[in-house]
Every structure is written in C-alpha cells, then in structure tokens.
Amino acid sequence: MTSGLQILILGLALGGVYALMAIGLSMTYGVMRILNLSHAAFMVLGAYLAYWALQILRIDPLVSILINGPLFFIFGIILYRILFVPLAGRPRYTEATLLLSFGLALSIEGMMGALWTGIYRLANPPYATRSLAFGSFYIPEGQMYATAASLWILTALWGFLQKTRFGRAIRATMQNRTAAQIVGVNVERISALAFGLGMASAGISGSLLSFLFPFFPGKHWQWISILLSLVVLGGMGSLIGTVVGALMLAVASVYVSSILGPTWSPATFYAALFLVLMIRPQGLFGKREV
Amino acid sequence: MALLDQIRIVIPHRLETRSLILLSLALVLFLLPILQVVSDGYNYVLHVLMVIFMYIALASGWNIIGGYAGYTSLGHPVFFALGAYFSGVLLVYRGWSPFWTAPIAGLVATLFGFAFGLVALRTRGPAFVISTIALLLLARLILDNWEWVGGSNGLSLPMIGWPYRLYKIPFYYGMLLTALLAMWVSYRIRHSKLGLFLRAIAMDETKAEVAGINTRMCKVIAFAISAFFAGICGALWGYQQTYLRPTIFLTIGAAADLVLINLVGGRGTVAGPVLGAALRVGLDELVVNQFGSTELNITATGLLMILIVLFFPGGIIGALRERQRLPRLLDWD
User: Fold this and answer.
1) How many beta carbons lie within 10 A of that of residue A149, not counting itself?
2) Mean of the per-residue pLDDT values of chain B
3) Which ranges does the record mark as transmembrane (chain A) (predicted)?
4) Could you count the other beta carbons within 10 Å of the beta carbon of residue A133?
5) What's the DSSP call for residue B152?
6) For B140-165, what is the mean pLDDT?
7) Does A273 touch chain B (CB under 8 A)?
8) CATH for A126
9) Is position A287 within any domain?
C-alpha cells in the first residue's frame, strides 16, 4: 500500500518528464498553429536511437540526450521547410497540418516496425532497476535522473524564452502572429526555430523514455493522446498550462494506478480530457477562441 | 408516342445516360449473386465486393462529419466496434440474428455518437480530433479488460447456418443495401439545408454562427448520423468474421483508412468516398496478394496521406473538377 505522500512524490517526478514531453507539442501549436500528431512518433524514434546507442555503442541514455537533441533539432527544421512551409496560407491550416503529421506519424511507425520489429524494448542502464530511499519514501533512481534532466532542460528553455531575443520573438509570435510580424519579427524563421526546438524536445524525451517506459512502434498513439490531453487541460498554446497540466494529470494517474491497477492509469488522461471539454473547453490557462 | 416525347423533354439527355449507367450498374450488382447460386466459384468476387460496399458505407458516413463539416474524426472505429459487440452479444447470449439487430446496432451507435458529440463538439477545431483519439484508446482499454465480452481474447460467434456455397450472399446484400442507403443519405444531406450549414461550418465556423446557424447542433447531428452507418457495418462484419476482437476493430489504422479513403476520393463530395473505397480495396487486394501484408503498408499509407495533403488536397474528384475534367458520370454533387 502506497501512502498519499508517496503517490504525490512519484506523480510529481513523473509529471516533470511529461511536461518535457509535451512542451514541444504545445509550443509548435502556440507559435504556428501546427497540431503535430507525429510528435510522439518522433519521441519513440528517439527512444529507439537511445536504445541502440546503449546496446551497440554503450552510450548511456542520459548522455544520448546530447546526440538526440541537436539531431532532432536539425531534422525538425528540415521537415518544417519541406512539409509545412508549402501549407502556409491554406484555408483550414491547422486541419491540414494535423492530417499531414498524421501521415508522417504513420510513415515513421511503419519504418520503425520494419527496422526494429514490433517487440517491446526497454533500455537497461545500470540505474534503471535501482531505487533510492528517503526515510520511508522511495523513488526509482532512473525516474529521479529523468526528472532532474527534464527540469534542467525546461528551466533552460524558460531562460531562453525569457532572456534572449529569439525567445522573446517566439513568445511574441505565440501571442499575436500578425502583430509580431509588424514589429519586425521574422515570423518564418521563428517558426522554423520553434519547430526545431519542439522536435529537439521530442528527441530528448525519447532518450528518457527509452529507460523509463517499455516501447514499441505503435506505442506512440497512446503517448500522443496522453500528451495532447494534458496540453488541452493546460490550455492549447499555453506553456505554463502545459507544465501545470502535466503535473496534475501525472499525480492523478499514479493515484488511479494505485487504486485500480496500472492497466487503468492511461484512462485517467482520457477521462480528464472529456471532463475538460465538458467543463472548461479552453483549458486552465487558455483563452477562449473568438 | 406523344407521351414518350414529353418524357424526353422533362429528363435532360445527359442526366438520362448517367442515371442509366448507374442504375444498370446497381442492377448488375443486385443480380451478381445468381452466378454463385448457379455455379460455385464466385465467393471471392462476392467477398471483395462486399468489403468495397462496407468501405463505401463507412467512408460515406464519415464524410458527413469529416467532409461536409470538416471535422476529422479518428473515433469511427469505436462505433464500428460498438455495432459489432452489440449485435454479437445479442447473438451469443440471446441467439438473435445480427441481420435483424444490425439496424438497432446502428441506432445505438447513433445515440452514443450524439452523446459523445454533445461533449466533444463543444469546442471548435483541433480539440475534437484529440478527443476522438482518446475515445478510441479508451474504448480499446475497456474492451481489452471487459471479461464478459471476452476481453482481449475476444468473443467467438456462431457461424451463419447457411451452406458454404451460399453463406456470403446474405452479407453481400446486407452490405450492398447499407452502402446504397449511405450514399443516398449522403446525397440528400449534401442537398439539404443541413448540408449547406455543415459546409458553411467547414469554411468559417464563426461566420456561420454569426449568420444564425446553431453550429453545435448541426455538428452533433452530423456526427450522430455518420455513426449510424459504422454501427450497422460493424454488426454485419462481426457476424461475417465469426469472432470479435478489440485488435481488429479498434486500431488507429482502421481510423486512418477512413480518412485516407476520403482524402484520396475527395472529402466533402458525394462520389469521393465511393471512388476512394473502391480504390482502397482494389489496391489492397492487389498489393496483399502480390507482396503480403507488411509494416511497409503502414509507411505507404502515411506517405500517400502526406502526398495528397501537399499536392491534391481535393482528392481525385477535387483535382478533376479544378481542371474541369470531371466526367459527369462521377459528378454527384
């Protein structure tokens, strides 16, 4: 039997990782109104890369963050230029990006299946099976490292958005794209940068995912719906909302898991999504669309 | 003689030939099972046509919300599964034939679609798609763990008590009628006030609402109607398969199929889903017969979707119409 405080600790630790996983998704939507359904597919791809880096090159998943981040950043910018720029100006733009990224997610899923088959994988660095005890509470060591890495990256991202010119331009574009353009922000470049950052966060999350949760190619559908539900809870396009939503739902899911068993913990996210749509469709920090 | 002349005046010549071709095609399809009765060996043809009819019904239904109103749903497999399990459970525990319970299964799916739509269609835009993915995964989770309906092992249904030679025929007619009904409903909606409202919503929902349209109710009704056909198809398909299993109904792949069929044929047109369904099943038969089913099928589906969104957003019908090359035979709007 796990106590309430233990659940809270585990939930918050998990929520930190979820926040990192979802932040890119939220930013891509906020800056460009792109709903990237392939976000989690790239996350799983990142997990495979980290897995093989560990198996073949003996590179620790925490170290492979340094490979996945830049790799996915560059890949993201290329993808944005090739696939999403031609869609600009389309009527029903978000819908088009959604279908496009849906196709992208399927292609990646198929390729991962062809390359690495459908069996469950889990990277196994030495700390993955150890646990640390603090008094009467415990926390899995891998989870702790992953949370620490997530928080560190989220803080760095926050600093980047607050303190640098590029960061300010990204925030301005999120608030009002047209106005940002008028005051001289190169919206196209900012969009490419934001998409690259979003993809980098997917790649980095993949490294963490590789040793935290078992994965297989089709797993990304479950992940994307979990991530989207916490983005919707926080309010689409609100970065703070995404972090708050991630923490809340992670704690709730650990709680549900301790009562009903781990099978039902994903149901927390879906139920929360329906509740949000019923009670407050714009989410916690969202603005009501006119 | 005079009467004949009058009829010629009333019916324009071109419409006459188009209706004639389509009607004779329908007649051929209705009479085709006679071949199987007279001489065995057409079960494969009947099966392939039956699958085409099913996809026509499913995709035409999807088109009502996904095409006319422009709200992409990835949750339609849930209604398909709902219909299949509803009729399947009645067959196993009560012995009622799915041929009688299929319309009720359709209505159950409609009711469920209405209730779900009331919640999920409160918002505009992308939140709806997200909620349909969640619905799909939630339904999968529930069915996988609900032992009464077999859990993840599924439920075995008794076979239909017909001789092997004839057993495809009732399913063939069931799916044919469902497909015709779906096409007719799709056509009627397209030419009704509701259809006009839905298309207004697809173009600009804010303006539609300002113009006095109850957009939320229109969307919910469209969604509920579109669930009806998925429910019926599910009931018939489950009986035909003789077993129900969450993995055959509730996959994102099944949802992607409906989206892709509509994208290829042409979203928001009456003929688009019909054309797309025929192509989808035809190509699938060719590819699977030639190369077997592999992971690369998923990749091909995804790449096709990307290419269509980038280069042919209107699908085949839309691209032809844009170039004014759309044959009248296929112009049903």
Assistant:
1) 20
2) 88
3) 6-27, 34-53, 65-84, 96-123, 143-161, 192-216, 222-255
4) 8
5) G
6) 85
7) yes
8) 1.10.3470
9) no
